């Protein structure tokens, strides 16, 4: 049978999702827990690999298994063997043709910026820090041109292995909550570092270094050199993955309480 798992993790302390030699990874922690729980090695497939320091409120993972366990048993059993930085939030029995990555129809990320003259020791690993004041309205104005289907070469990492640079952003929203600024992006798929490169570019606009219309110039340039540097991974969260299967929650809870009426927080 095939099981889908909803995984929440704090990226601090992990070298990203994917298993790497001699480096702690979220995938390794999960597969170690699965082996202890099931007494057999069980490979995992995730919806999207995250980089070092990137967090997830709801990563989706699929596994194949012969173990017939109640859904709550998967959650409680695996969490017994997982380290403090990782937790299984829910488990679902899915169709045999379900694939965490290839069955996905959309992905949603949030990036949270701590905007204050002084860095926060509490939020240091959970947000990106900008000490200059940010104008959210200017950032919204600049971001508007990114919605829709575009060639996102300017926002693509040089080592990105995706077959092409065209992606469709369905929503791109910004919200200020006191000293925190949230950026939410939903797309059919993302290129490597795409969100962090977009955020870095919008920060240039928010600080007044560039005008809002500059973002469109960057997009049309189709050159990574045209955009701002890649911003910190600390404030990036994989919020959720959209599937046709209605039993799979569309998103996890926002880390700083940004409620999304289109994707209510998962409450399995």
UniProtKB/TrEMBL annotation:
Spell out the InterPro entries in the cross-references: PsdUridine_synth_cat_dom_sf, PsdUridine_synth_TruA, PsdUridine_synth_TruA_a/b_dom, PsdUridine_synth_TruA_C, TruA/RsuA/RluB/E/F_N
Q: Which residues form the Pseudouridine synthase I TruA alpha/beta domain?
A: 8-102, 145-244
Listed SUPFAM superfamilies: Pseudouridine synthase
Pfam entry (one): PseudoU_synth_1
According to its UniProt record, this protein's enzyme class is isomerase
The function of this protein is: Formation of pseudouridine at positions 38, 39 and 40 in the anticodon stem and loop of transfer RNAs.
Know the name of this protein?
Answer: tRNA pseudouridine synthase A
Q: What is the lineage of its organism?
A: Bacteria, Pseudomonadati, Pseudomonadota, Betaproteobacteria, Burkholderiales
Gene name, per UniProt, is: truA
